[in-house]
Amino acid sequence: MNPPARKPRVAGFALFTLFLTAVFVALGVWQLQRRAAKHELVAALTERLATAPVPLPPPALWAGLNPARDEFRRVSFTATYAALPDAMVYSSGSAVRKDASGPGTWAFLPARLPSGETVVIDAGFVENTMQDRGVEDRAVKKLVTGQPVALTGYLRFPEAPGWLTPAENRDKRLWFVRDHRAIASALGWGTVAPFYVDLEQPAPENGIPRPGPLDVHLKDDHLQYAVTWFLLAGAVLIAFAVWARGRRRS
């Protein structure tokens, strides 16, 4: 009676083991695919960052721009900072700015092109650990002179908030995600370009806000994760083999 009763349990455990092994192997392969995709992304972004700046695309071409092809393109243009309320965007650290590795805020301001369109400028990093509105006001006040300024920076596209992204604080004009279109709508900046510009230069005399060149240094732990998943797959198979041998001996 015992052997027939034992076989279904062994077969069921074997199927479960194969299922877990397949899942772990699939996760390992997925991590390797993500690693390859990230390496391609880093290579593409590094190439764009090293390219000489080109003129800002004309408004007629803005609708055709997209992050996959145009994110981090270096551009140069002339614009005038508008006398409108600025916004600050909280940052716990940047993946593309080594000089902004700690908490602070990014200064977002609208700027008018000579043709009349509005482009949002991330004018740089402010060491504003308490998200103090007064600190931001003092930092950006000197930028709004009413005079056109030659700007060089990088095309960036809006971020989508996650489930855990805090809601904006309208009283402090503080946001927690770089969604310049939502900011523009809330602060009455009018219609803005579908991208914003991460400013590289010029920098104010005192360096606040602090613009600067971007440098891609994205976190790459995918190989470590892949090895972990493959080791788990092997451990499951070994555990089943040991268990099955013990069952046969008993």
What does the model show?
This is SURF1-like protein. The chain folds into 2 domains: 15-45 and 219-249; 52-201, no CATH class. The protein has a 5-stranded mixed beta barrel. The model has no long low-confidence stretch (mean pLDDT 90). It has 5 helices and 8 strands, in the order H-E-H-E-E-E-E-H-E-E-H-E-H. It is an alpha/beta fold and 250 residues long. Helices cover 39% and strands 21% of the residues.
The total of beta strands comes to: 8
For the CA atoms, what is the radius of gyration? 26 Å
C-alpha termini separation: 15 Å
User: How is the main sheet built?
Assistant: 5 strands, mixed, barrel
Task: Please tell me what the overall shape is.
Answer: elongated
| Mean pLDDT rating | 90
Offer a few descriptive terms.
250 residues, alpha/beta, 2 domains, five-stranded mixed barrel, 5 helices, elongated
What's the topology here?
Layout lengths: L1 H49 L3 E2 L11 H4 L3 E8 L5 E5 L12 E9 L5 E9 L6 H9 L7 E8 L17 E2 L4 H8 L4 E10 L20 H28 L1
Parallel strand pairs: 1-2, 3-7, 5-8
Antiparallel strand pairs: 2-4, 2-6, 3-4, 4-5, 6-8
Q: Outline of this structure?
A:
The chain crosses the membrane at residues 12-30, 180-197, 223-244. The protein has helices at 2-50, 67-70, 133-141, 180-187, 222-249, and strands spanning 54-55, 74-81, 87-91, 104-112, 118-126, 149-156, 174-175, 192-201.
